[in-house]
Design goal:
Elements: H1 4-18, E1 23-28, E2 34-36, H2 39-46, E3 51-57, E4 60-65, E5 69-73, E6 78-84, E7 93-99, E8 113-119, E9 125-129, H3 133-136, H4 150-158, H5 164-169, H6 179-188, H7 202-221, E10 258-262, E11 265-269
Parallel strand pairs: 2-9
Antiparallel strand pairs: 1-7, 3-4, 4-5, 5-9, 6-8, 7-8, 10-11
The chain binds a DNA duplex (16 and 16 nucleotides) through residues 1-3, 6, 32, 59, 73-77, 92, 119-125, 160-163, 166, 169, 171, 178-181, 224-225, 227-230, 243, 263-266.
Length: 276
DNA sequence: CACGTCACCTGCGTGC
DNA sequence: TGCACGCAGGTGACGT
């Protein structure tokens, strides 16, 4: 499920539930889920730490602990779920953190809970690190931050000779866009996913900059998109302009949406609104 | 540096 | 019903 708006939605919903709780134990049910350190080191070092803050950087969930950081990437099918303590693990639970009742000043219910990392396809990963830079260091700018300006965006686009969509998906270029929100933003900006980045004009860059931020904010406002069997309660999927709408009318001009493949990813465009 | 291909995984929808 | 196939919100390691 997870692009920036979905991860942001999850971070916001987990924050009041998790802050102030102590990690009593980690139950690793699929060892490769733990990217670093070793499973053994992870279990030892995570135990006893108190959750201080829950945030997001790009598509990473950032759980700040008393003396380290837990970074979680949900990849394609990951999800984080609050369970009642010691409930039976579900089929695709890859990691379960057993948490204490929160400290007295916290607002969440005063009973222990489990935090389950459920991930059908097993692509998701977690890291435990004192220095988040080790994991997040190569990420590009956060698209909703003040540092991401139209001018810098235009300069950065022109510094590459690539197709537009693959560059937007490159997390070292811009951090947080995925397949859905990229297609949506390109359509809103009336730009073709295969357009060469080197030729993007200042005006087009400004349009795309605005479109990216608008689409991401709308995604967050709608609590993300919920597709297929992974449901999180968001409803942005009901407002897609092009994504997954092959053959259906473009919301702007009515032309049938087409599907092409760009960089191995299914890509949706309006052939009339978006020209190369 | 840019781009293509494959790998990592499971499950769902489609068509025969 | 069974089975093959294509598809899926992500990323990283290769090779050319």
């Amino acid at each position: 499920m997870p692009e920036l708006p979905e991860v942001e939605t999850i971070a916001r919903s987990l924050r009041p539930e998790l802050i102030g709780r102590t990690i009593l134990a980690a139950e690793v049910r699929w060892p490769r889920t733990v990217a670093s350190p070793s499973v053994r080191g992870f279990k030892e070092r995570v135990q006893g730490q108190v959750i201080q803050q829950v945030g997001r950087r790009a598509k990473f969930l950032h759980i700040q602990l008393s003396s380290s950081n837990l970074l979680i990437h949900l990849r394609m099918s990951g999800d984080l779920q609050i369970r009642s303590a010691q409930s039976r693990p579900e089929k695709h639970d890859r990691l379960i953190l057993h948490l204490s009742a929160p400290s007295s000043q916290a607002t969440a219910p005063a009973s222990p809970i489990d935090l389950a990392f459920n991930d059908t396809r097993k692509f998701g990963r977690v890291w435990l690190t004192a220095d988040i830079h080790e994991v997040l260091g190569n990420l590009g700018p956060e698209p909703l931050s003040r540092a991401f300006t139209p001018q810098r965006f235009h300069d950065a686009l022109r510094a590459h000779r690539r197709q537009l969509k693959p560059l937007l998906l490159d997390q070292t270029f811009l951090a947080g866009l995925g397949n859905i929100y990229t297609d949506e933003a390109l359509h809103l900006a009336k730009l073709h996913p295969l357009a060469p980045t080197h030729d993007v004009t200042a005006r087009q860059a400004w349009r795309l900059h605005t479109a990216i931020r608008l689409i991401l904010r709308e995604g967050i406002r709608r609590n993300g998109a919920s597709i297929d069997w992974v449901y999180r309660g968001g409803d942005f999927q009901n407002h897609f302009r092009v994504y997954g709408r092959l053959g259906q009318p473009c919301p702007v001009c009515g032309t049938a949406i087409r599907r092409l493949v760009v960089g191995q990813r299914g890509t949706h465009v309006c052939p009339k609104c978006q020209r190369v």
